[in-house]
Amino acid sequence: MPLFEVQVIIENKPGMSDPEGQTILNDLVLKGDHRDVKKIRSAKMLRFQVNAKTAKSAELSVKKICDDLRIYNPIASKVTFAVDPR
């Protein structure tokens, strides 16, 4: 069975506060070297390597794992999946 890498990117939905991104932005502004940067949004990325028959089944398998383990809050988080064959 083929091996796939499934990347799960979890970020706050637009309009939700992002304290980590704001802290990074504040640090850049305080240092004074990067005044052209106006906004930073942070995200978390998880990489799963799974054996599956197809890329779609690998994605669905990882999505189920994330849902079952409540890895993200569906109300506050935007989640995207990307699948690459290994």
Topology:
Layout: E1 3-12, H1 19-31, E2 43-51, H2 55-69, E3 77-85
Describe the structure.
Helix content is 33%, strand content 33%. By secondary structure, it is of the alpha+beta class. The protein has a three-stranded antiparallel beta sheet with strand order 2-1-3, covered by helices on one side. It is elongated and about 50 Å long. The mean pLDDT is 94.
Spell out the key features of this protein:
alpha+beta, 2 helices, elongated, 33% strand, 86 residues, three-stranded antiparallel β-sheet
**Rg result:** 17 Å
State the low-pLDDT regions, or none: none
Quick one: biggest sheet? 3 strands, antiparallel
Count of helical regions: 2
Beta-strand share of residues? 25-35%
Mean pLDDT: 94
Strand order in space, largest sheet: 2-1-3
Please identify the structural class as seen in this structure.
Answer: alpha+beta
Helix content range of the residues, please? 25-40%
Number of strands: 3
Shape: elongated
Q: What letter string, H or E per element, gives the SSE order? A: EHEHE
The N- to C-terminal Cα distance equals: 11 Å
Task: Summarize it.
This protein has helices spanning 19-31, 55-69; strands spanning 3-12, 43-51, 77-85. The chain is α+β, with helices and mostly antiparallel strands and 86 residues long.
